[in-house]
């Protein structure tokens, strides 16, 4: 849920920065943005691949259905757009590729 909340707010910041809702201009304005997330971390939109730098959290489900975080990173980490464990991924670009469809 936090990712959606952050994404909507970052999109709004990018629209404000770009001064338009033009997709290409908003996409360019997203690069490098930061946003203070409800989790208490300041998240960053990667300037290269537009993936969100986020903390890693490991939790357990309590008997009441709530989650309890049992471990987390000290700060957000950069996302890997492609798994290094899948053959061929090392040849994929680390930048957004515009669809030709």
From TrEMBL:
A single GO molecular-function term is: (S)-limonene 6-monooxygenase activity
Task: Output the Pfam families linked to this UniProt entry.
Answer: Peripla_BP_5
Query: Would you say which domain of life the source belongs to?
Result: Bacteria
Span list, region Disordered: 81-101
Q: Enumerate the transmembrane spans.
A: none
Q: Which PANTHER family does this UniProt record tie to the protein?
A: ALIPHATIC AMIDASE EXPRESSION-REGULATING PROTEIN (PTHR47628:SF1), PTHR47628
The record ties this protein, via SUPFAM superfamilies, to:
Periplasmic binding protein-like I (SSF53822)
Q: Kindly provide the name given to this protein in its UniProt entry.
A: (S)-limonene 6-monooxygenase
Q: Which UniProt keywords apply?
A: Monooxygenase, Oxidoreductase
This entry's Enzyme Commission designation comes to 1.14.14.51
């Amino acid at each position: 849920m936090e990712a959606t909340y952050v994404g909507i707010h970052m999109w709004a910041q990018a629209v404000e920065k770009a001064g338009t809702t033009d997709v290409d201009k908003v996409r360019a304005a997203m690069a490098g943005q930061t946003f203070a997330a409800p989790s208490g971390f300041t998240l960053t939109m990667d300037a290269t691949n537009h993936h969100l730098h986020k903390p890693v959290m490991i939790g357990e489900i309590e008997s009441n259905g709530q989650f309890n975080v049992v471990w987390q990173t000290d700060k957000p980490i950069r996302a890997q757009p492609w798994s290094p464990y899948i053959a061929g991924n090392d040849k994929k670009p680390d930048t957004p590729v515009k669809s030709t469809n």
